[in-house]
Amino acid sequence: MISNNLGEEEIRKLCLANLSAFKVLLPQGFYRQVKKNGSIIPFDLHKTEKLLDLFDLIIVSQKDYPQIESQAKEWSDIGIIAVVTKDSSGASVYVSKRRRDYTAFETEITDETGAGDVFAAAFANATAAYSLRFFPFELEYTKEQIQEFSARQSKSL
User: What is the top-level taxon of the source organism (predicted)?
Assistant: First the structure.
């Protein structure tokens, strides 16, 4: 679901239309306002509390809100999977009141535009795929290729 520029009522209707669907909130930029000089002003997170219980997974950048870690823990306390991305430092995943940190893979960055969107889409897709376990033959990479890449980075999956 893409809910750019939708109001609270429209988002609620879309989420309630299919209760069994896995719903992901990607509020990149929603919790912040960028001033003309480039400085960032965080929004009040509590303005969206009424909608949060409609989502299964929330992925948000640490850049969006300086105190997002404590908010992510609160989300996990009510059953939402919360992911806080931290640029080249990786991400923290909050599930069932527990936090697990993941370091980022080392890569050569040529342009970071859209990196958070790509991460969010890949994470949401992987989470949904893992929970459904359908169509594994459609993976672009083999399990061995993913494991080899992980081993080269000294990471365990």
Answer: Bacteria
pLDDT score, position 84: 92
Cβ neighbourhood burial of 31 (10 Å; 0-12, 13-18, 19+): buried
Its domain, for residue 146, covers: 8-152
Residue 90 has pLDDT above 70, yes or no: yes
Which of 88, 84, 83 lies closest to 112 in space, CA to CA? Answer: 88
Average pLDDT estimate for 124-131: 69
What CATH code is carried by the domain that includes residue 129?
Answer: 3.40.1190.20
Q: How much is the pLDDT for 114?
A: 78
- As a whole number of angstroms, the distance between CA 93 and CA 110 comes to 26
Residue 47, CB-side half-sphere exposure with 13 Å CA sphere: 10
CA distances for 57 relative to 38, 110, 143, 150, angstroms:
29, 29, 25, 24
* Cα angle for residues 146, 150, 156 (degrees, 5° grid): 115
CA angle in degrees (0–180, nearest 5) for 122-117-138? 25
C-alpha to C-alpha distance for 21 and 55, rounded to whole angstroms: 10
Closest CA to 84 of 20, 27, 18: 27
